[in-house]
Amino acid sequence: MGNDSSLATELAESITVRPTIFPRAGYGVLAFLMFLNALFSIFNNFLVIAVTLKNPQLRNPINIFIFNVSFSDLMMSLCGTTIVIATNYHGYFFLGRKFCTFQGFAVNYFGIVSLWSLTILAYERYNVVCQPLGTLQMSTKRGYQLLGFIWIFCLFWAVVPLFGWSSYGPEGVQTSCSIGWEERSWSNYSYLITYFLSCFFIPVTIIGFSYSNVIRSLHGLNKKVEQMGGKCNPEEEFRAVIMVLVMVVAFLICWLPYTIFALTVVFKPSLNISPLAATIPTYLSKTSPVYNPIIYIFLNKQFRDCAVEFITCGHVVLTNPEEEEVSTSAAPAERKTPSKLNRVTPV
User: Is 229 helix (H, G, I), strand (E, B) or coil?
Assistant: First the structure.
């Protein structure tokens, strides 16, 4: 009987991740914050997906990536944030190690899919604005090819921890799971370094390069408009600059603390990091599904108008279909008109 009891205890410990010491009220606060996070992220991203599917005019090659961001963010919220609400309510990850591995894999996979989608989106906007006559013109076929690359490339980085190159396990206050940042081994260190080169530093470089050139191009277009006797719109240029700054700052707020934390573990393995300090960057990264739709979608007037119509079940229509049809048919001619050049924006 005693042996059976001991065996049961060992089995329970092997499938249950017990928490590091943390105040019970602290878990309650985290559960509430994650509830708000899940509420807004699921609503925002579901709205983006529903509105895009309902309005064919929104399904252009560039918006394919925005749709992909919303889908991956929605899955990240469903597979990650909703689970964290329950585990924080209980005060520990009570679902077992296999579920911990699944959550770590899902959050990692969908998170870097979203991140790389934003990266490709930035580069394609650079092509549209700065290289309008270049050979790499965006098309629906090219868009789907890039999406295929994103999902396969990110799958590699999410799968290899399952086969021994790093691992998935509890993080921070032990109520969520991710890559085992705190594992002190050269195998884990090599994974973290190559992971962040591929999934943070390269994306940041591409995004910074793309949007800085977009801003420079917009400024140059305004100068050309003035020289040709057109009317420059400095307010629109300023709005474009602000939108780009918001995009970049939000991106860095989400991912930079996470990166610093993980690389600190690599280069200073003897450093003792408290559970709360380890939790803050991981929870910041989980906020990206909330503000990605706001920044990349709701600042777009065409989408915003369609969203209002969708939410109000067609009772409020802000876009005149006839005007939209005329605008769409006249688009090629308008691109050649100097007075219209300064209307190109990064969003």
Answer: coil
Helix axes 97-130, 234-267, angle to 10 degrees: 140
* Burial state string for 202-224 with b = 16 or more CB within 10 A and e = fewer than 16: ebbebbeebbeebbebbeebbee
pLDDT value, residue 87: 92
Size of the chain in residues: 347
Residues 6+ positions from 85 with CB-CB distance below 8 Å: 31, 34, 35, 38
Asked if residues 120 and 150 have their Cβ atoms less than 8 Å apart, the reply is yes
152: Cβ–Cβ under 8 A, 6 or more apart, which residues?
Answer: none
- Tell me the pLDDT tens digit for each residue of 262-299: 788 778 877 777 777 778 888 888 888 898 888 877 77
Distance CA 71, CA 160 (A): 23
SS3 125: helix
Neighbours of 89 (CB within 10 A): 16
**Beta strands 168-171 and 176-179: pairing type?**
antiparallel
Q: Which CATH class is domain 13-341?
A: mainly alpha
Residue pair 219/130 in contact (Cβ under 8 Å)? The answer is: no
Provide the token pair at 179: 């890559």
Give the burial string for 226-263 (b: 16+ CB within 10 Å, else e). Answer: eeeebebeeeebeebbebbeebbebbeebbbbbbebbb
Q: Are 115 and 203 in contact (CB under 8 A)?
A: yes
In angstroms, the CA 115 to CA 95 distance is 28
Domain boundaries along the sequence of the chain:
13-341
d(CA 252, CA 205): 12
Pairs from 82-86 (Cβ < 8 Å, separation ≥ 24): 82/38, 83/176, 84/30, 84/31, 84/34, 84/175, 84/176, 84/286, 85/31, 85/34, 85/35, 85/38
Match 């999902």 to its residue by tokens: 151
**39: closest CA among 85, 72, 106?**
85
Q: Looking at the whole model, is its pTM more than 0.90? A: no
